[in-house]
Specification:
Blueprint (H helix, E strand, L loop, with lengths): L1 E3 L8 E4 L5 H8 L4 E6 L2 H16 L5 H8 L5 H7 L1 H9 L1 E3 L8 H15 L3 E4 L8 H8 L4 E3 L9 H13 L7 H11 L3 E7 L15 H10 L1 H5 L11 E5 L5 E2 L5 E2 L6 E3 L10 E9 L18 H5 L8 E2 L8 H16 L9 H10 L7 E6 L9 H6 L6 E6 L2 E2 L1 H17 L23 E2 L6 E3 L42 H7 L12 H9 L4 H12 L4 E3 L1
Parallel strand pairs: 2-3, 2-5, 3-4, 5-7, 13-16
Antiparallel strand pairs: 1-19, 6-18, 7-12, 8-12, 9-10, 11-12, 14-15, 17-18
Helix pairs in contact: 1-19, 2-5, 4-5, 13-14, 13-16
Length: 554
Amino acid sequence: MKNVKKKLTTIPVVDIFAGPGGLGEGFAKAGFNIALSIEKDPVACNTLRIRKFFHLISSNKHQGNYFRFLKGEIDLEQLKSKSSDYWNKAEVSVLEAELGNREHEKKICKAIETVINQSGEFILLGGPPCQAYSIAGRSRSLGIGQTRYVEEKDVKRTREEIKKERAKLFYADKRHHLYLEYIKILANYQPNIFIMENVKGILSAKKGHGSKEGIFEEIIKGLEDPDQISGISRDSSTKKSYELFSLSNEPKVDLIKEVIYNPRDFLVKCEDYGVPQNRHRIIVMGIRTNASLTPNILEKKSQKNSVRNAIGHMPKLRSAVSKTSLEDTFENWASTIENEYKSSLYGKTDDEFNLDDIVRTIVFSNRILSRGARHIKKKRGRPLGSELEEWYLDKRIRGWIQHETRSHMASDLGRYLFCSAFALRHNRSPKINEWQGDLERLKPKHLNVTKDSIGDILTTKGHNDRFKVQTWDKPSSTIVSHISKDGHYYIHPDPLQCRSLTVREAARLQTFPDNYFFSGNRTQQYHQVGNAVPPYLAWQIAKLILNMNKVESD
């Protein structure tokens, strides 16, 4: 064994379960080479290729073509043809494959081995898909917290039988076991350092129906000793184990100086580290025990960044009205809001929300709001301010990309109007149980009763914050993939805009730089943004690694 001092940024990074690349982006911005990204979603893979292309050309003459592409002046095929050598390199660095799919196993191994053969070592990043572990996912699948009304004529099986069937289907979900694919890579290829990320619900997730053994405890065992979980037998000279580190809490030691961790020590609250979003995730750093390295923990910011810090100065936009024969114009949008106000809200609330003035401003404002565009030209420059703002901005864009609004039903425009006006007054979003008396008419008709997916059971579900405003002066709530389905949980705080967040606004709350392009249609773009790790947090993690001054290898 000998010490080999290396510049850490020369060690390639392999990013598995990469999504659109949030974790990898933070490392790339810190100077690391993301040599390989593995992702099963073809649309996210295209996002990864475009981003890798950007990093390859960002400091040479080809960068102009990238920004022409962002602005829509050339399409992707033209971009590829104008810089084919760089595009080919970008394509090689992204593998569309599904971990856990045995048909894909050979090409995954070959791709990782190619990276190792070029460098001899690597850093592993990734977080197995988290839906199976999330508290919300378990609640939906298992019916936790739901009240069931079962009629014998409709359902022949007993509640207990249905509950067992639900559990059987839920725990058969292969996403429960994808952490084993991560551990298998650790066992087979023994990277120097790894970062594993997942939802905080993993702390309470169980291995199976009725099991008292937790998933997280199993994962910790596997991360510490990958060979044991993977069933690999080696002699002591080739066996590698890992020391695990929390990024948010100093390690504690027992009487014999053994490091001990509480599982919650691995919980990272992103809002404490400058991310303008309340996002709580489990993040584990592992370092091979023979490396004798100890990272510092992340440094908390003195102040939390808010929604205003992230999106407060972005171009103001209007939404549109869906399910209508009206032409999509500012006038028709404004008059729809006015009609909703008069039919559902006028005289139904006191004057504390200034709804009358807000609606009058919308209708008679001389500022004609657009719905946005793929590229919106910035009228004048803004001086750089905070570290976060410098992180976002790229003057070469000369504006904003992918800042376009959705359409909303007329009734939802009325709800958005009330909720955002309420939030301006009280600095919080109203709960639906506060929509009492005359405000009952704001509640959607489908609110109280829905059909269950198994057994056709009528259920009531908690919808108390179904319509949620992201208030100006606080971090946003967690951006999740559900934002791709509707915007009810992500209402813009400005009632004059009366809409949900755009892809670019959601991306900023996730701390993606403004020059980050998301492939696919708008729904697919939202989905990618919601599934990502905030790059700004990942960048801070990468800098912790850079502060470790040596890497040991055989």
